[in-house]
Amino acid sequence: MARGGPDVAETRARLLDAARRLFAERGFEDVTVREICREAGANLALVNYYFGDKLGLYLEVVNQAIASIPTLGLQRAAEFLAAMNVPAEIAVRTLVYPHRRRAN
Predict the structure, then answer these.
(1) Which residue in 11, 59, 86, 101 has a CA-CA distance of 20 to 30 Å to 22?
(2) In this structure, what CATH number is given to the domain that contains residue 39?
(3) Model-wide pTM > 0.85
């Protein structure tokens, strides 16, 4: 697999799709990286390579959800954030100020 080629983007997308679905179904705590990788058909080490760790993957899923708020609509965005077990304070801040990012 060539670095940066279409396989890389496809594998990363599969990991994000699997993580999005599993986190939405069961929440962050009840999903393992192994389950995500099995669902995505990807090597376990790729989560660390692309996202740093499980939390980094989760944050990318949440950031993508935040970025999609303008196209999802407020109600669907709120439902998605709730399904992802995003804390209420962060969900409200995200929905009220979708274009502001907190400095880390």
Answers:
(1) 101
(2) 1.10.357.10
(3) no
